[in-house]
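ok new one. same drill as before - structure tokens go in, u give me an amino acid for every spot. 134 of them this time. try not to just spam alanines like last time pls lmao
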């Protein structure tokens, strides 16, 4: 069975790559290339998959919350993703890349009984990014 738990965090970013000129960045990323950055209220849906255990649950909610808080939320909450996350010193902090980073950070120390099955990050209510975890 799959269980999805929702988390929220606010962070800012600027979409910009040093491989391109200022004009090319503006063309590619539009207003998201604004040098002062901008913020999002991200929504992160974490889906785990496993058997229903003797307690009648797939995952202990508190354990999943603690893990996601420790591995992800405390790193990104109220942060400037370009500056505060060293991973984004060489990688544009698009939400595609953020989803891959979240997957890597979670898998790195995953210690829960069910497996991590799927991630979805909502950047705005029009943009959602889905990542199936194999
Ligand atoms: Ni943005």
């Amino acid at each position: 069975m799959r269980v999805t738990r929702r988390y929220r965090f606010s962070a800012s970013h600027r979409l910009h790559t040093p491989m391109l000129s200022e004009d090319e960045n503006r063309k590619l990323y539009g207003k998201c290339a604004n040098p002062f950055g901008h913020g999002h209220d991200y929504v992160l849906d974490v889906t785990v998959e496993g058997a229903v255990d003797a307690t009648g649950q797939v995952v202990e909610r508190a354990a999943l919350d603690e893990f996601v808080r420790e591995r992800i939320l405390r790193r990104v909450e109220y942060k400037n993703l370009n500056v505060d996350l060293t991973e984004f010193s060489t990688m544009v902090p698009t939400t595609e890349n953020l989803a891959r980073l979240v997957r890597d950070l979670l898998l790195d120390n995953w210690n829960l009984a069910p497996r991590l099955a799927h991630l979805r990050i909502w950047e705005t209510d029009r943009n959602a990014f889905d990542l199936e975890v194999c």
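The chain has a mean pLDDT of 96. and btw The two ends are 16 Å apart (CA to CA).
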